[in-house]
Amino acid sequence: MYFMLNGYSDPAQAGMVRTISHILHYLSEDSRFATRLMQPFDQSILPSTMRIVDANLTHADFMINTVYTLLSSSRPHLVPVYSSLLLLMRNVSPYLTQVSQTTADKLVSLFDIISSPAFIISEPYHVRWLIYLLEVFDYVVHYRAADNPHLMYSMVQARSCFTRLKGFDLDKARAELLALRERKGRSESARTIGKLLPPLPNPSSGAVDPTSGSASTLASSMEVLSLAATPIKDNEGTSDSALSDKARGKRPDPGPGPVPAKEERQQSDAIAAAAATPPSAPAATKPGASANLQQFQPSAEWVFSWLPDLPLDPIISVLEALAVCTDKIAEDVQRDAETLSLSQIDGQDGGQVHLASPKNSDGAADSAAQLAVADATAAVMRWLGSDAMVKAMPDLEESMPEIRPRLQVMSPALVVWFRSLLWSLIYGAGMKPFGIWKNTQVRLFLVKNTQ
After folding, report:
1. Is residue 379 a part of any domain in this protein?
2. Which of 36, 264, 312, 329 lies 20 to 30 Å (CA to CA) from residue 120?
3. Which residues constitute the domain of residue 154?
4. Which pTM was predicted?
């Protein structure tokens, strides 16, 4: 993770970042690796620019924050690793415990962007990213709800993201995407998830974490959602027949192919197959554009192939049940605080009336309100980590998912990329002193696709 953070901004290190992402994905298939990630993490070994705001962290917190950093970095050369990074979080999620508040907020804000209707329909493989991230919350709700009060609290606050996805409407999504494309039509930025997410703060500068809970941050991120619809520079929208093998290896990995039913639960298989093979054929972007550039055109059949199978019902039912309880707890705490404050004022006044300046009274009222909110939040967090929360949750026995990791599958694009990496290493070794290609005319060349 350290090497990924240290080199993700350098396009020359893209191969290293991609290699590490595949290694981590492979390790995440082992439950022992996921369990060890829950051990405490000492940030003192990191440079100040890599440290996280929260004090008590686990290795899983550092992993999720690293994934968030790469997704929010706005680097087109990192797009091919997004699937591996999301699969890493997905495979580890059944074992997550005590996720910090900063990590929880970033995870939910990431879901808010990926689950937005315009982003979903801009590319067919975006559904696969949505599935991976949704399975993270599905596992946490079923297996680790009481162990992650901060994450459950963030999910309850952002439950509208899940209900929005449940009521997905293709016509509204198209209208939203069209409006955003028109608004950002002159933008030359590449389409990446990173452009949609607020940047990570620098702890050394004392900046406030951008995902610490304000809805305005997510709303401002949605203003640039149209970047998800603009073509990226690595030939994402180019037809396979027009690309060389090397160019195909640089495209985003569409994800694992079909797997036997014995190795994946039936629901995940149905969703993954639908996401990988949309039934509608893409159409040309506009007259006069290159014939190779194509734009995905979603259909109602494509939406129906994956939307009904998303595990949204158990998540929404849990969040709605918890929202009722948490709202009542917060109201009770605030009411008790107001009653206590009034009784203290009456006791200090002794029945006498004192005139106070409006400025001082407003400041005292604001301070009291902030303390009441803090007390209410603390009470809610204590309740979310108790057995009372588990008793308040609806019965999830019928929807309990089986804990099975999504395995690393060598897709054609991944095979091409590994073959290119292997020949690069062979060539580099052969050009060293006394190498077989030293002082020869053998050269490693790059084939560029012209549009």
Report:
1. no
2. 264
3. 2-319
4. 0.73
